[in-house]
Amino acid sequence: MDLKLKGKVAVVTGGSVGIGLAVARKFAEEGMNVAIMARGAERATEEAKKIVDDYGVKAIGVACDVSKAQEIDSAVKTIMDTFGGVDVLVNNAGTGSEETVMEASDEKWQYYWDLHVMAAIRMSRALIPSMKERKGGVIIQTASICAKQPLWYEPIYNTTKAALVMFSKCLSNEVIKDNIRVVTVSPGLVLTPDWWKTAGILSEKEGITPKEYLDNIAKENAPIQRFASPEEIAEFYAFIASEKASYSVGSNYSLDGGWLRVID
Ligand code: NDP
């Protein structure tokens, strides 16, 4: 299927590893030019170079902590100077948390609010003018199954991801008149390097291998009984970013191997 993405420009936050990197690489495979944003400049630049080598598109790594407004401003300037405009934005940077509501500080709440919600708001505000100039665009949020079905140990993650889904819906209503589609993807278990790291530590305590630890998690939670690979999640992003998904506006798609325990 030709997704007709060739030559378009995409920005992926948290694009240097995991889901974001798989999405950036899939976009490049489809012929898109990509900017990958992450705090770590070295890894972002290295991955951008690999994308150039592997797919022959233009790609840059941009160092930016998206939880900070000033850093977003200068990163967006770099992106606009390099590409001259943007067609697709993926607000993907994020991470899990661990706390109780009664014990977590205001500062911790604020950090996750800035990372999961304000970053998406600021990135969208910064890039929508360019999408308007180009007569259209697509903005995709990476939320989580936890926005609908909370995990007990991470109330801040659950709450801020739920807020991100609502922001996405509100923005979609506002900008569809400009031919900009805003959509959310909510993954379940996706096997990123970070999961291997966690499994390496926790499996030792249980006297099992990391692979057994991960298999147990998948079997306990997802009817499909396995994790997704970042690459299979990225396929969906490419479809959503393309004109093949032209009637998809404001929706929040679960990609969770059946983990969500209600109909939706
Ligand atoms: P990873 O931890 O593998 O990668 C996170 C990426 O985000 C890295 O590129 C990291 O680079 C970047 N990042 C982290 N903090 C910031 C920041 N403040 N500013 C800019 N970039 C940042 O994440 P995943 O691929 O696992 O997750 C991606 C998204 O998917 C997240 O929003 C996560 O909540 C969501 N998700 C993941 C699931 C999973 O099972 N993996 C399931 C459901 C949702 P650097 O450290 O250099 O900044």
Report what the structure shows.
It is a single chain. The chain has helices at 18-29, 41-55, 69-83, 106-133, 155-175, 193-206, 210-221, 230-241; strands spanning 9-13, 33-38, 59-63, 88-91, 137-142, 180-187, 252-255. It is α/β, with parallel strands linked by helices and 264 residues long. The protein has two domains: 9-190 and 230-253, Rossmann fold, CATH 3.40.50.720; 191-227, no CATH class. It has a seven-stranded parallel sheet with strand order 3-2-1-4-5-6-7, sandwiched between helices. Helix 5 (155-175) links the parallel strand 5 (137-142) and strand 6. Helix 1 (18-29) packs across helix 8. The longest helix is centred in the middle third of the chain and has 28 residues, at 106-133. It starts with 8 loop residues before the first strand and ends in a 9-residue tail after the last strand. The mean pLDDT is 98. Bound molecules: NADPH dihydro-nicotinamide-adenine-dinucleotide phosphate (NDP).
Index terms:
264 residues; alpha/beta; Rossmann fold; 2 domains; seven-stranded parallel β-sheet; 8 helices; 7 strands; globular; binds NADPH dihydro-nicotinamide-adenine-dinucleotide phosphate
| N-end to C-end Cα span | 28 Å
CATH fold node name of the largest domain = Rossmann fold
Summed up, the helix count is: 8
Ligands bound here? NADPH dihydro-nicotinamide-adenine-dinucleotide phosphate
Which residue ranges are poorly predicted, with pLDDT under 50 across at least 5 consecutive positions?
none
Q: State the fourth-level CATH superfamily of the largest domain.
A: NAD(P)-binding Rossmann-like Domain
Largest sheet, described in full? 7 strands, parallel
What is the strand arrangement across the widest sheet? Answer: 3-2-1-4-5-6-7
In CATH's first tier, which class of the largest domain applies? Alpha Beta
